[in-house]
Amino acid sequence: MGKETMSIFAGGYAGKILYVNLTDGSMEKRPLERDFALKYVGGRGFSSRILWDELETKTDPLSPDNRLVIAAGPLNGTPTPSASRLVVAAKSPLTGVLGDTNSGGYFSPELKYAGFDAIVLRGRSSSPVYLWVRDGKAELRSAKHLWGQKISETNHLLKEELGDDDIHICAMGPAGENLVRYACVMTDGEGAGGRCGMGAVMGSKNLKAVAVRGSQDVGIADPKRFKEAVDAYRQTLEGEVWTDVLRRLGTANLVEHRQKLGIWGAKNFQRATIEGWEKISGESFRERFLVKVMGCMGCMVRCRRYSAIKEGPFAPTYTKGPEYESINSLGAKPYITDPAIILRAHYLCDEYGIDEQTAGSSIAMAMELYERGILTKEQVDGVELIFGNGEALLHFIEKIAYRKGFGDLLAEGTKIMGERLQADYYAIHVKGLEVDASDPRSLPTRALTYAVSTRGSCHLRGFPYIDEFIKPEEAKAYFGTEAVSNLKSLAGKGKMVAWSENWVTIPNLMGVCIFAWNRSRSFSMLVRRGLELMNEIFVATTGLPMTKEQLYHCGERVYNVEKLFNVREGFRRESDYPPRRFFEEELPDGPGKGSKLKREEYDQLLDEYYAARGWDKKTGVPNPETLKVLGVP
Questions:
Q1: What pairs with residue 131 in β-bridges?
Q2: Which of 21, 334, 454, 607 is deepest in the core (most CB within 10 A)?
Q3: What are phi and psi of 200, to 5 degrees?
């Protein structure tokens, strides 16, 4: 290790956290404590605990008192495959609960090379600034010349100013400057930290960007053991169908899957399938727009796409993606099947720094309200805001970024839109975060996963698909009943969801990609990769004592801290329910036609989930005994 990274750790950790007060410009390097690392590991673990400790109840998310935490994991900066993920967290201005977002690329490893495991920012600068971090040193510089710039130009100007094309940048765009509640952060112009409005928090602090560059080493405590564990991981990818599909089509491969299951959530969750879905399939985007296949740092899966529109009214447009989530939010929800419009909308969201999930959901909600006569043409700036109108989608993305006209209301997200328009039934969210990925009315375990997620509705906070492929004997061993392997049974599913949340938290702590490590149609492989090999690599890297059981409990500990944060903000059992539409309206089409959630069955699932977690069934508050066992707080 270089001089700046010498610490009590034998490897993995830089050993320092940088604290920055934007109000007075002061900075402090604090040592990373060994006990803190053992309990919270890194990434989402560090950010969640820091926010729990340092924020007062009812802190205004857009006030100087909020904290913005940028955190890496212990495996970032090592040769661990797919160890590229960065966590950016704060109290969310969109939801009012703990918010975090996750993106790939190269920023997180570079933060470690620059000498820090995390950066904690507080206060508000009196004028626009950016933070420049290099080899253990940091300074705030004026960003007045960057204010108003889109993401690509911000990156270009910073690299030109600093004279280094190899710096890595986490920035916000105009949407963050204008405090769009779901403004996102972009790493190197391509990695979108989309959910929960972290770009708005940056904007509230007058922080345009964080740039990092480093030349320091990230040590490996036991190189031989590390290599053996990494080789074993690589072997698990051989013949993995999911990996091959991701390499060919990226996450857009899920388009066909969603159509087959009938879980699109199209037209603001009024339809389950899409007519003409083939035009926006992974194959279609590959054939018409793909320029090259890419991967994040050290990635063996390589699911990232780089695409181009080379003809037509949007030419030339060059952009990464699209991801499945882009197609879902900018295609299915507003019911648009023109792939060029989806790709252009995706590009605009990245350039302005907007979370496309909430943007697409907000526009789709407005389209439904317009078609139902709840919104008038005058209210929506004279635009014919109907489903399928791609020009309207593109028009309002720009309006959202600058809070112009009707875009000012769209910039608030669906929860506030529903409250102000007295139309909350049509706002499809949980805790203020819009339902993404799929419609769960025919799949109750997905509904539970989305609803109990600590950051609001999220398909990445758990892994509710286990019951689709787990063997009866595995179900019995892990969840106490073979019924978990039966899709039609609810027994054991609450326990399964709780287990999956603890397990899927672990890559967020380590800094590795869940698509590389935690995707398989074999339950034994999920355990092998996500617990056994993950723990082996962690121990070999850091030299810290850890068993796979202890690692699993680290995930559980972090989830409980996040729950405590939300409870402190007033969120209880009633906040862990899916939107009313899922209980009151049946799926109108597709294989699940006629399905809807049944409240008594959902209550049964939620009761079992709370029991598995050791939380009070009536309130959803963690029991003192549970917290004592986990060593929280």
A1: 140, 210
A2: 334
A3: -65, -35
